[in-house]
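Lab notebook, bench 4. Still working through the backlog of constructs that have no structural model yet. Next entry is a single chain of 119 residues. Request: give me the structure tokens for it.
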Amino acid sequence: QVQLVESGGGLVQPGGSLKLSCAAASGSIVMSNPVAWYRQAPGKQREWVAVFTSGGNTYYTDSVKGRFTISRDNAKNTVFLQMNSLKPEDTAVYYCKDQWSRTANFDSWGQGTQVTVSS
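Model written out:
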């Protein structure tokens, strides 16, 4: 399993945008694996946000549909999460993994990247 590193988080006002990146710490993301984004807000369980499947399909949790877009750049070996129309409830630490589970039930996680939506 490849270790993935997230970046691109920050502080943004409500209605703003951020673009997160997910790249391999070393080696390459295996393109035959799905890559998914997850997030964990303070005091809440980690939840699945979006996934880019090995077949090129994308799926989103209901709360981000129409606002977030997951994409994959094979040349850069990077997966992105474009987040638009951000809301305070999007505030969380965002993680990526080359495994997909709607329950986000994994034992190990990377450091993630903090996204804070606040005025």
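Notes after review: The chain has no helices and ten strands. The chain has a mean pLDDT of 94. Flag for follow-up if needed.
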